[in-house]
Amino acid sequence: MGKKKKDADEEEESGGGKNKIIMAVGGLVVAGLAYNFLLKSDPPPEEMAMVEVEPVEGEIIELPEMVINLEDDEIRYARIAVALVLEEGTLAADFEAESAIAKDIILDTVSSLSAADLRGENRQMVKDGLSVKVREAYGDEKVVRVLITSLVMQ
């Protein structure tokens, strides 16, 4: 009987310590897996993070007609009428006080163009460029796009 107790004590000293280390490491692994699967939130997939929602179009506000000198060798000007398509929820009546920002951008942009820049297929590129600039000026809010409702050059 004394011999059995002595053998058990020796096993506990030599192998028992190893078992405690293995159990501790195993516990850490299980805790890490539990954290990873249960508590840690996954970052959104790249496809979802890159998706931009197109703003919904709402009211349209017409700006006063402008006469703008063009960037040509000859003295030329354009008489241009522009309308802004506002985002849904942006009221035209409330936006009128802020429309001077859009007029300034349109004046600066169109005055840097020539008559050739405003003809034919180029006109769509001008509208797209104006839309981007005006939308950026309002913090990518309020204005969806710019429409050219009338254009006369002389």
Q: How many domains, as an integer?
A: 2
User: Would you tell me which CATH topology of the largest domain applies?
Assistant: Tetrahydropterin Synthase, Chain A
In helices, the fraction of residues equals: 40-55%
List unreliable stretches of 5+ residues. none
Strand content: 15-25%
Oligomer: single chain
Report the biggest beta sheet as strand number plus sense, adding barrel if it closes.
4 strands, antiparallel
* CATH class value of the largest domain: Alpha Beta
Q: Output the structural class.
A: alpha+beta
The fourth-level CATH homologous superfamily of the largest domain is Band 7 domain
Radius of gyration: 35 Å
Mean pLDDT figure: 82
Number of strands: 4
The number of helical elements comes to: 5
| Cα end-to-end separation | 118 Å
The outline comes out as: elongated
Instruction: Give the topology string: H per helix, E per strand.
Output: HHEEEHHHE
Q: Which CATH architecture of the largest domain? A: 2-Layer Sandwich
Give the structure's gist in a few sentences.
By secondary structure, the chain is of the alpha+beta class. The chain is 49% helix and 21% strand. α4 packs antiparallel against α5 (122-137).
Question: What do these coordinates show?
Answer:
The protein has 154 residues and is an alpha+beta fold. It folds into 2 domains: 2-49; 57-153, Band 7 domain (Tetrahydropterin Synthase, Chain A), CATH 3.30.479. It is built from 5 helices and 4 strands. It has helices at 2-39, 46-50, 92-95, 99-111, 122-137, and strands at 57-62, 66-69, 77-87, 143-153. Helix 4 runs antiparallel to helix 5. The chain is elongated. The mean pLDDT is 82.
